[in-house]
């Protein structure tokens, strides 16, 4: 399977986070509408053993999240260990790493460079590497459910309620001048008779027009594909015993969880 990157620009606020499995679900619906149910069945056949395409989460353009592995696992010299202890607050604020660096450098070297930068970093530099700081604004949208018998809202299931919505700031809106409404999605892909790059691109164009996630029908989750392009990522071969997932994963029974480090999130069903 080859690795590709697709970049998108949000045109509206969103409710549903860009998680790889949710993106896959949207892609399947768009694929069905574009090429038909029979092609979708062939695409999904034996998917668990031989997946045709695997999506990552969406990440800030040109960046990837900092790996969750603790610094104590990287076998650093005592000098760097002391620097980590003295700069814990700044280090916690750095949750993004340039994707090009994360793909080509060892975690030990990246950590040493990170520590050297943090020692002299001011607040603005920390903000650049912390996606939660200036990148978005959260607000509540009120919803009403009308009781058709009375023509009004009421109690119980007819009570007005609010939904948390996130608006990612564009370059003009953000205080630091960054383009925080642009994201990258990575995907591993094997071309078949039913599936190629042009079909994948068209599926995402259609998803962006209709809307991603909750409340797409009222204008949320809209996005455009940047330059209508999908880029092949050249991945250098390297011997390593460390791997980082870029999307939600359910560990196999053979995975040793004591050797794994992870962040968890809550999935809310409908």
Briefly, what is this?
The chain is of the alpha+beta class and 270 residues long.
Explain this structure.
By secondary structure, the chain is an alpha+beta fold. Helix content is 31%, strand content 21%. It contains nine helices and eight strands. The strands form three sheets. A four-stranded antiparallel β-sheet has the order 2-7-1-8. It has a two-stranded antiparallel sheet with strand order 3-4. It has a two-stranded antiparallel sheet with strand order 5-6. α1 crosses α2 and α1 packs across α9. It starts with a strand and ends in a 38-residue tail after the last strand.
- Range of helix content: 25-40%
Structural class: alpha+beta
* Spatial strand order of the main sheet: 2-7-1-8
Low-confidence stretches: none
> How many DSSP H or I helices?
9
Topology pattern, helix = H, strand = E: EHHEEHHEHHHHEEEHE
Number-wise, the strands total 8
Distance between the termini: 33 Å
Taken from the alpha-carbon principal axes, the silhouette is globular
Rounded average pLDDT: 81
Strand content: 15-25%
Radius of gyration: 21 Å
> How many strands, which pairing sense, and closed or not: the largest β-sheet?
4 strands, antiparallel
């Amino acid at each position: 399977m080859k690795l590709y990157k697709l970049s998108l620009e949000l045109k509206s606020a969103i409710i549903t986070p860009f998680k790889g499995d949710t993106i896959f679900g949207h892609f399947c619906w768009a694929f069905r509408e574009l090429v038909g149910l029979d092609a979708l069945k062939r695409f999904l056949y034996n998917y668990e053993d031989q997946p045709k395409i695997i999506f990552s989460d969406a990440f800030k353009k040109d960046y990837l999240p900092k790996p969750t592995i603790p610094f104590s696992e990287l076998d650093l010299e005592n000098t760097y260990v002391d620097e980590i202890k003295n700069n814990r607050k700044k280090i916690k604020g750095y949750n993004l790493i340039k994707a090009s660096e994360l793909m080509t450098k060892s975690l030990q070297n990246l950590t040493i460079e990170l520590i050297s930068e943090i020692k002299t970093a001011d607040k603005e530099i920390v903000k650049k590497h912390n996606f939660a700081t200036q990148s978005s604004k959260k607000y509540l949208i009120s919803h009403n459910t009308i009781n058709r018998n009375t023509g009004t809202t009421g109690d119980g299931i007819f009570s007005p309620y609010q939904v948390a919505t996130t608006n990612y700031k564009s370059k003009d809106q953000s205080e630091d001048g960054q383009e925080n409404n642009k994201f990258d999605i990575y995907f591993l892909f094997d071309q078949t008779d039913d599936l190629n790059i042009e079909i994948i691109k068209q599926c995402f164009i259609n998803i962006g027009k209709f809307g991603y996630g909750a409340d797409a029908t009222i204008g949320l989750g809209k996005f455009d594909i940047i330059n209508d392009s999908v880029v092949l990522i050249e991945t250098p071969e390297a011997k390593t015993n460390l791997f980082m997932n870029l999307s939600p994963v359910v560990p196999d029974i053979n995975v040793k969880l004591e050797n794994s480090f992870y962040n968890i999130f809550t999935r809310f069903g409908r």
